[in-house]
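Weekly modeling sync, notes
Attendees: AB, CL, MP (scribe)

Item 1: holo prediction request
CL wants a bound-state model with heme C before deciding which constructs to order. AB pointed out that an apo prediction alone won't tell us much about the pocket. Agreed to run with the ligand included and paste results into these notes for async review.

Input as submitted:
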Amino acid sequence: MQRIRSVAGLLVIMVLSIGCDSQSPEFALPDGDIANGQALFVSMNCTSCHTVRDLDLPQAETKGPVNVTLGGKVSEVKSYAQLVTAVINPSHELVKRRKPDEVSVDGESLMTIYNDTMTVSQLIDIVAFLDSRYEEFERPKIKYRTR
Ligand code: HEC
């Protein structure tokens, strides 16, 4: 009986693991709402410092100190783990295609910190929206970083 149970258990695990993306076992957000993420991107004024490639968004009333284009065929932001990091810890890794003094002061990103005002649900939707704007990622090659 014991034996049968463990074989059955193993089968369940095997079936479950077929359905999982083996690249991202440790870091996984629930599915976000892309349309809501886009609306939040505008209402939270991300557009004051960002345009999104191939997407016409309403202009922000006040322009920020710099414009950094998001989306498109770039290889720097590869996974939603990196997108989450870019939003909640922008100084962790400054965007590489710009000179540091264009986007930071003393290593600190010019990006607004939203951590005390953005809910986790809002973050999930914004990341879903941004993720949908990046192209040509060969998903199997993505190296997810979980820290
Ligand atoms: C005051 C200006 C400013 C605002 C407002 C701002 N950002 Fe940024 N953001 C930056 C700058 C500057 C960078 C590039 C430096 C860096 O990597 O932190 C950046 C980088 C990013 C990146 C990484 C881009 C890349 O290619 O690596 C993402 C993603 C991002 N911002 C998302 C957002 C979102 C989402 C919002 C709104 C919730 C937002 N930003 C609001 C200034 C801003």
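Recorded for review: Strands lie at 50-52, 68-70, 104-105, 108-109.
Action items: CL to compare against the apo run; MP to circulate these notes.
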